[in-house]
Amino acid sequence: MRIGVWLLLLGVVAAEIVALRFSSTLKYMPLRESPAGFDQLLAFLPAVVKAVLLTGTGMLIALVASAPADLKTILFAHRPRRITVVLNLACFAALSSIFALTGAGDAQSEGASEWFPGLIHATPIFWFFLLGSWANFVAPCGLWQWTLRRNYPAWVIAFFVSILSFYNFDATLASRIGSLLIKPTLSAASELYALTGNVLACNSTSSEGYPICGSNSFFVEIQPACSGFEGIMLSATLLGLHFYLEARKLTVFRAALVILVACVAIFWLNAVRLALLIYIGDHLSAEIAREGFHTNFGLASLVVVLVIAVASSRLFTRPKTSTERFPLKCVILDAESGANARLFIPLTYLIGSSLFFGLFSGKFFWLYPLPLLVTLGGLIQIRAELRGLTFSPTGAPFFLAIATFLVWLLLVPANAEKAEIFQASLLSAPGPVIVLWLFARLFGSICIVPLAEELAFRGTFNVMIYNGLRPYWSAATAQAGAVALTAVFFGLLHSNFLAGAIAGAAFGVARWRRNELGDAVLCHSFTNLLLSFYILVTGRWSYWP
């Protein structure tokens, strides 16, 4: 009964978060235009709330990973006081009522009631007590304090970085921050572009005040995001978290040195990106520059820098290496065996090669077969591990696949404009090229992609999470948590998070039923088969990214 009450409180927290997220307008941004300083500070409130939730989630994970062995007993025996429940319901009702009446930005309009702006200004108080009640629902205050005391530098850094990440800057504020990097970035890009024998001209500005730079007939608007500060912040955050959680424990000086070098590398690669973008657009193809190169180079360079940074940090500690390989079947529910990181290889090859070949593609990804060949090479590389993969078709994976397919169609709307562009590009090619490309697309969707993704997510990532939860939870609870968390990260890999997460949960259930990774692969493959057949019959090509 105690477990049921704790799960009920956890469900209340999740339900209130979802309700406030989708029912509120959160239009605090117009308050930045107000001359009042408090109104301008209030514009940061949505970012602060998101930062608190993100940092609190990180604290909860750390709590599970490092708290005493009796954590499960402490959590399930915890009961919040009645005053906490009353305070939670009152604050939730107040915020829901405010957002139901009107958007926060409307409080500045002439027709707003005299009392309503004051109520808007009181929302930080409602949020403060609501967030506090959520924390107390999940765990006792003493546990939160214990976790914060042990890790307060990391949580403070994570909190402020989250605020900067979540806050949507307007043109004025963004130009102030971006100007710190835009000018040196343009200067570096100009010097690099001069190596081609051309001159990078920045002689005009857009209506928003951003510089417009280019050469001859190709020009681009340099917005604050082009300065690279987002990539620098992201790389510093991810590397900081990695070094904080890394068991080898680098010294602070070495970790800071690696992060600094990575940030400098991101800055210079961003300058290279800008120079190459203009050169490709001016001398080769404007479509490839805008659609392929611009979209993929930033992410590809970020991944390369992060991989090199992590690899170089390991050289400092000279860790022991192990060549032991684990068969697929024994690593799923065995907490004493480690996850085989080699199963990540095919997905790593797939993502990396897709980004690389995407640099040379326009609106239509004609080079799609090439990443498949690279991924096939990764599968061959781990052929020893694949010997443990068995397929024993049963009804459950196929029923789960049908349900996943229907949910996908329900949650992911078809894009008529994208489908029209896709069809026009595809049909512009000769007949044999169309047939070969469609065959490669079907082969990739039904065979290569499901195998690569399931090896990584359900074959390895699920094991890593399970092994982390198993010391504190029962086998069934730990596996359920591993399936759910793996599904969340799987959803992040897709453009529609909710649909991807639900699909990941279905594949995880298929994997969990009989402890057979082959069931997850079959479920994933059959889902993609149904989706591919639906695309070919209806012509809704937008379902193929």
TrEMBL record:
Record InterPro entries: Exo/Archaeosortase_dom, Exosortase, Rce1/LyrA-like_dom
Biological process per Gene Ontology, one example term: CAAX-box protein maturation
Location (main, coarse): membrane
GO molecular function: endopeptidase activity
Matches recorded under Pfam families: Exosortase_EpsH, Rce1-like
Residue spans crossing the bilayer: 43-65, 85-105, 125-145, 152-169, 227-245, 257-281, 293-316, 343-360, 366-384, 396-414, 497-513, 525-543
GO cellular component: plasma membrane
Annotated signal peptide: none
Membrane topology: Multi-pass membrane protein
Keywords attached to this entry: Cell membrane, Hydrolase, Membrane, Protease, Transmembrane, Transmembrane helix
CAAX prenyl protease 2/Lysostaphin resistance protein A-like domain sequence ranges: 437-530
Keyword Transmembrane helix in annotation: yes
Compartments in which it is found: Cell membrane
Superkingdom classification of source: Bacteria
Record's protein name: CAAX prenyl protease 2/Lysostaphin resistance protein A-like domain-containing protein
